[in-house]
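Q: Okay, next protein. This is Putative RDD family membrane protein YckC from Microbacterium pseudoresistens. I've checked the sequence twice, so it should be correct. Can you predict the 3D structure?
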Amino acid sequence: MSDVVQKYPGERLGFPETGSGSVGRIGRRIAALVIDYAAATIIATAFFGFRQFDLPQEAGITQFMPLMIFAVLQILFIPTIGGSPGHRIVGLRVIMLHGGWVGLWRPIVRTLLIVVVIPAVIWDADQRGLHDKAVGTVLVRS
């Protein structure tokens, strides 16, 4: 193991400590997640309605619509505008660790890992979740 201790998240990756291009911190990440999931819930309710599930036989695919719409928002917007609507609103963007376009498959794999939850809550010293590490991306400030 290396004895080098980094002073801030992203230092060993070559990112600045603060400002544009610095690694996105937890507050912005949570705010983006809340915005995205709230938007997905509003869209799901508008198009598929809201049901209070009193009986097990009433539960159906409708209860999973916010999660599915959340996934679609991630997959559509990361390659097109550089992040989900929530990311962009709070000033974050998803980039490739070594530059270039994120492509089409990375947002799909990244989103599937976010939906599973565990990879998204396990981070390294650079505050990159397993979902970002798996596809070679990093969430940075715009």
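A: Here is a summary of the prediction. The two ends are 32 Å apart (CA to CA). Helices lie at 26-48, 65-81, 85-89, 105-116, 118-121, 130-135.
Q: Noted. On to the next one.
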